[in-house]
C-alpha cells in the first residue's frame, strides 16, 4: 500500500509531483497524494488536472488527456468522457481549494483523516508562503511600518498545527533562502521555526535534519539546511531552505544525503530542443514589422564608444539577418521526440513521447525598444559568455527609468541586471513569480529569436515534465511556475525519504522477528528439559 502524502500550500504541485513520481515494489507508486491543499483557484485547477493525469496514466484512457492538452477536444468534451469524469471525481477529493488559517480547521482535519485511511506512517510536505521572508519582499517593504504584522510571518504555524494534530512520521518543509536571515521583532525567525517544529507539542518531538549534511538541529548550522539546486542536477541556481523532520521514537536511522552531480545541468540542455519561435511586437504585430524592428536594433549601439562597438554591431546585424522564425508559438506545437542513447537524466525526466509535441510554448509581446535591448544582450552574452549589466549598455539602449538617469556618475545603478540573458552553458538564475510581470530578467540566449522565455521554457528550467499542463492565462501560468518547487529535486528528496521509511520497515520487521524468535525459544524451554551442564536456550538468545 502506498505511503500517504499530505501536501500543504501546494501551489501547482511541484513538491507533490516529485513524491508521486517515485516507484516502489513491482513498479507500483511508493507514495500517493492523499490530499493537497492550495488557496489560489487557478493553481488548484492545475493540481486537479494533474491528479486526473495520474489517475488516467497507465490506462488506455490517458489518450483523452493528451487530446485535451493538444487542443483536439475542449474541456467540456474532455470532462464528458466517462473515465475522465470518474478521474475528476477522485481528483476533487484529492486537490482542495482551501486557505489554511482561514478555512474551517475541523473540516480540514476530517479531510486529512479520511485521506490517511488509518495509516500511521505517512509524510507531510509543503512550503508556507515565503513573501515575508524573501529578500526581495523585505526590500520592497523596508519602510512599511505594518510589515511585522504580516500574517505570512506565521503561516508556518498552520503547518505546525497539522503536525501537532496528525503526527506525521516525516515532514518536509521548503522555504526561501531569506528565512535564514529574517527577523521578527528583532528575533531570528529560522531559530524560532526550528524550535517550534522540534518540540511540536508535549510528547511529540522531531529531529530537524538536513538533506545535505549529517546531524540534526543540535549540531547543524542554519546554512546547512540550504540546498543549492544546481549541485543536484537542476538547471537553475535555485537556493532554498528545506527541512527534514523525523519523528523521535520511531527508530528512524540517519539517512543518506543528496548526491551532487559531476556537472551542472545547463539552460541549453533544458530548452535547446524546443521549437524556435519569434517574439511578438506589442503594437501592430506582423512578421514584417517584427523583422523591421530587429533589423533596426544594431543602430542603437552606434556611439557606444567601446573597442567592441563595430564588432557588436556586425554581430547583431548577422543575428538580425538570421532571425527567420515565422511563428510566435502556440498552446501546442507538434514535435517528434528522438530517442537517443545520450539522453541526460534531465531530458529523460522532461520528455514524453506520447505527448507528441510541446504545450504552452508561446512567445509574449515586447516593445521594439525592448527587442533592441534583447538582441544586444543576447549577442553580448553569445560573444562574451556572460550577461551585460546596465552600466555597460550603450546609452541609447538604457531604459527610460528614473533609477537609471538621476544618479551621479559614481553611484551604482539599482537593479543593474534588469535585463538578464539566461546563458546557454550555465544553469539559469532563479525562476521566480516576477517572470509573470515582464521577461526582462529571462532573455533567451539565442539572439535570432530575440525574446524572453516562454511558459514551457520556464517550466523546463523548473523541471516540470512536458506533459504538465498549467491552468489559467499566460500570466497565471508564469506565476505558478515561478512559485513552485522543482519536481525533479522533489523526487530526489522523496528518494531519501523512501530510503528512511524502508530502513524503518526493515528494522521493525527485524525486531518483530527477534520477538517471535524469543517467544519460540520460551515455548521450547517449557517443553524440553535442559540437559545437565547445558545452558538453557533462552539464555543464549538473551
Automatic annotation (TrEMBL):
Domain of life from the UniProt record: Bacteria
Enzyme Commission code(s) on record: 2.1.1.37
InterPro entries named in the record: C5-Methyltransferase, C5_MeTfrase, C5_meth_CS, SAM-dependent_MTases_sf
Coiled coil segments of this chain: none
KW Repressor (keyword) present: no
Catalytic activity: a 2'-deoxycytidine in DNA + S-adenosyl-L-methionine = a 5-methyl-2'-deoxycytidine in DNA + S-adenosyl-L-homocysteine + H(+)
Keyword tags: Methyltransferase, Restriction system, S-adenosyl-L-methionine, Transferase
SUPFAM superfamilies: S-adenosyl-L-methionine-dependent methyltransferases (SSF53335)
Class of enzymatic activity (EC top level): transferase
Keyword S-adenosyl-L-methionine recorded: yes
Active-site residues (renumbered): 130
Transmembrane segments: none
PANTHER family: CYTOSINE-SPECIFIC METHYLTRANSFERASE, DNA (CYTOSINE-5)-METHYLTRANSFERASE 1
Family: Belongs to the class I-like SAM-binding methyltransferase superfamily. C5-methyltransferase family.
Name this protein carries in UniProt: DNA (cytosine-5-)-methyltransferase
Annotated source species: Neopusillimonas maritima
